[in-house]
From TrEMBL:
Residues 226-270 are annotated as: Disordered. It comes from Kribbella antibiotica. Keywords: Lipoprotein. The keyword Translocase does not apply. This is Outer membrane lipoprotein carrier protein LolA. Residues 252-261 have a biased composition (Basic and acidic residues). InterPro entries: LolA/LolB/LppX (IPR029046), OM_lipoprot_carrier_LolA-like (IPR004564), Sporulation_related (IPR052944). Gene3D superfamilies: Lipoprotein localisation LolA/LolB/LppX.
């Protein structure tokens, strides 16, 4: 994304701007979000960018390439995302009473009745297309190991914005810096740019190319399936599912102990460490051992061992992962050594 010329704005301290960002709230917005990712991940054998129908294809798609989405939000419980990729459209929308998921390529739609909204909190856009949600995850990592400064101003989506830069001081993370373009009127993050510790090109960039903070009309969130589309209506849950607070490998908004004990589910993620050095562990991962794509993928990975056991390290300029022989996966925006240190602390 290319920003416009730097506007002249009143001076503001990093502490003042940070406080305004953390308390920013709007009743609605709509616009176009563009995201790009180049995490340097090795290709998964047998999976191409167009294989979005498989889980591995969706993962590859999310972690690489460029994507565009039209988004809208209205408090307290209305949200819509229309993802435009490969001449196809995927829509996720809710008007507070019903929710739709539509895939034009498959000509399929799923409709759910939304359980009664009891929390009083607004719905959230899917985080991969919500610059504010992505920004909050990085803001949660701020601690004494983070340098925070206002590095200038810029125009994003035609709006004047301050540039709030977060620079980790620890060498345990692969993140070099995170810059938030903060709207000078609403203090909502308009764009997030993540630079790796090595290299000058952004590893991740997500932001608005156009945005309006007017509350969208109610009919923005309704959906009528096109003629001929197959509609299914699974049984709705009795309660609203909890929205994950963070993405794997990124800081959570809640203060965490050094090790968060897993729940009853065998594969429930466990977070080890805090802030920039946090690592996510998943247990009970079974490798096929049949020479399939995942086995081919790991065949080229470096073998490592330590007090935690044996396994293989998959490295990139941003995301690293340790896959142990006993079925555990450790991953995060951290160095390979940090992963092994986390494995040594982790419960079996």
């Amino acid at each position: 994304m290319v920003a416009d010329a730097s506007p002249k704005l009143p001076e503001i301290s990093a502490q003042e701007l940070l406080a305004k960002v953390q308390t920013a709230k709007v009743d609605g917005l709509s616009g176009t979000v563009h995201s790009s990712a180049d995490l340097g991940l090795p290709a998964l054998p047998g999976v191409t960018g167009g294989d979005s129908g498989s889980a591995s294809g969706q993962l590859t798609e999310f972690l690489s390439g460029e994507h565009t989405a039209r988004v809208a939000f209205a408090a307290p419980d209305k949200a819509r995302v229309s993802v435009l990729d490969n001449m196809a459209e995927r829509v996720l929308t809710t008007d507070g009473k019903s929710a739709w998921a539509y895939d034009s390529a498959k000509r399929e739609a799923v409709k759910l009745q939304v359980p009664e909204h009891k929390s009083g909190k607004p719905e959230k856009l899917p985080q991969s297309y919500d610059p504010q949600a992505v920004a909050k995850q990085f803001l949660a990592a701020i601690d004494p190991s983070t340098k925070v400064d206002v590095s200038g101003t810029e125009k994003v989506a035609g709006r004047d914005a301050y540039k709030l830069r977060l620079t980790p001081k620890t060498d345990q993370t692969t993140v070099g810096s995170v810059t938030l373009a903060v709207d000078s009127k609403t203090y909502v993050p308009l764009q997030v740019t993540v630079l790796p510790r090595t290299g000058k090109d952004p590893a991740v960039e997500i932001g608005f190319t156009e945005v309006s903070f007017a509350v969208p009309a109610a009919n923005t969130f309704t959906f009528t399936p096109p003629k001929g589309v197959e509609v299914t209506q699974p049984k709705a849950p009795t309660t609203r599912p909890d929205v994950p607070k963070s993405l794997p490998g990124k800081p959570d908004t809640a203060k965490k102990p050094d090790i968060k004990k897993p729940g009853t589910a065998a594969n429930e993620p466990t977070v080890i460490g805090e802030g920039w050095s946090s690592v996510v562990m998943i247990k009970g991962v079974k490798l096929s051992g049949d020479g399939g794509p995942v086995d081919q993928f790991l065949a080229g990975a470096k073998s490592v061992e330590g007090s935690w056991g044996k396994g293989k390290i998959v490295t990139s300029k941003m995301v690293n992962a340790l896959i142990t022989d006993d079925g555990r996966v450790f991953a995060g925006l951290v160095t390979a050594q940090t992963l092994q240190d986390a494995a040594a602390k982790a419960p079996r």
